[in-house]
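Working notes for the structural subgroup meeting. M.R. asked for a predicted model of this chain before we commit to crystallization trials. I am recording the input and output together here so anyone reviewing the notebook later can reproduce the run.

Input as submitted:
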Amino acid sequence: MASTHTNPDDRAQPGDDPEMPRPGYAFRSPGYVSDPDGDGLFGGITATFRDGSQVTIVPRGTDEEGRQRYAYSVTQEQVPRTLAAGDDLRSGVGEPVNYRKALAAWTSFACADAEAYQATMSGDAVQEWAYQHDDELSELALDLEGQDPDAEAEQATTAAADDVAADDRCDDTDGDVTTVDSLEIEAWVREAYWSLAREPGAIVTLHDLRQALPADLPRDQVDAALTNLADHSDVHVFPTSDQRHARPQDQAAALWLGGSHDHAVTMDATQHPDRVVERLSMRDAQRATSMVAALDDQTVADVAERLGVEPCDDPQVLRQRLIDTSAANHAAWLADAQQGAEDGTLLYRADTEPEWGAGWTDDDRQAAAEAAARLQDRAATDPAWAYVRQRADRWAQPQAPVEEPVQQPAADGDVNDNHASTATGDSSADGDQAPGATQQALSADNGHDDVDGM
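Returned structure, recorded in token form:
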């Protein structure tokens, strides 16, 4: 049977334990394969989600253009069924087998499905599934982005090129490098889009968009601005659906985001306050600042009211309060997520590493009970945490330590006591006797008496 190769971080992996928090992905390849990510014969990759859903990608050889072909399937465990299946995933021309990149590409399409479903709150079964798993898809995309060596090499090359370009822009007098504020670049990107789009929602390629921007803007700063804008409620960045026919200039202008390359962008005519609230309610200060900067004063007031931010007549003060509220919510969410991961990991280790738990103190056992109580609360209020309920219930009460029986040293009078116990029929003395042994001893004594009396 094929062995499973898991990614090397310390998160839960498929096959470890169904209650372990934070699912991830694993390779499907025989154990003797040294590079499971490049095994084009027997390999594949499977991503597992908290509810047991799985996305599996396997190789299907190369097409006539020299692109790797991959087949995929999406299965659901709670109501066993296959939600989707296909074989239309393709790599770039001449690229080797790379399951991480294939899964990253699929994940980007799923994220787009989730966004499409969220926009109308309707769609097919796959779009609904993607919407329900949006947070986990985002986590998976970030994990895959951090594991892609090709992306890291590309970023290193881009950074080196930007360093050279920055040197060329240095002022000969004082050596200062010309930099542009990210918010200003984001505004330029918006202006460039509307200069190219014939109507709201029109598709504009990133190649055309970059061409419409000032030529001396560094690539990394434009990419950073596009990444920020992709988080805005009215901006949608996505990959070309048929990458086999993507133009070389579109590939060169692509934005690496969420584990895949995006090639085009659309923008809505307005930003509805409700959709802004969905995005802005929990963002770090940098992302929140970017999002608030793109809002008009009336939308800022509407969003602030919905988020319960203290009103203010000064628009700039209200904007800052909105940013601070979003950043505080984000920090609290991170802290809560970290606490949940720590609680789940603690009880998982307690169940699977008995030698570790054997050395616990009373304080350790109390800490486990408190972690279990917190997980019980999560399971009762959040369906995504329902899988931890049984484990939390087991550990909700402080566990009593396992005490080894203590052997007392024999005292001088123990031998006589044992004989006395035997003589009286007490079988609880040291060296427990088999049933009937005491009765046999008494019968033997009676036999001796009969002989003596003869």
